[in-house]
# Entry
Amino acid sequence: TKDQNDTVIERTEQQQKLQPPRMYQVLLLNDDYTPMEFVVSIIQEYFNKDRETATQIMLKVHRDGKGMCGVYPKDIASTKVELVLTHARKAGHPLQCVMEEA
Ligand code: TYC
# Structure
């Protein structure tokens, strides 16, 4: 019956809500132009890192081409990417920030 089908769907939805959210890494990519100090400030401001940790992440990006700043649920990761890109563009820097499923 329709009621039995609805009950099955509700149970499935409840079970899905109990699953942990999919997590997404937010990565910075290296480029030749964005100042190191600007990248360190971005990591401190948007990823809640202290200056030492932010500097280590920036240097890893500079050496390896990319580096992880944090891991978040999808909507939070997406918002951080947009905020970082907006800040960088306003400052005239080509810094790239992307997310990928962890
Ligand atoms: N490579 C840049 C420079 O030498 C620094 C830099 C680091 C740029 C990290 C982007 O995500 C980045 N000024």
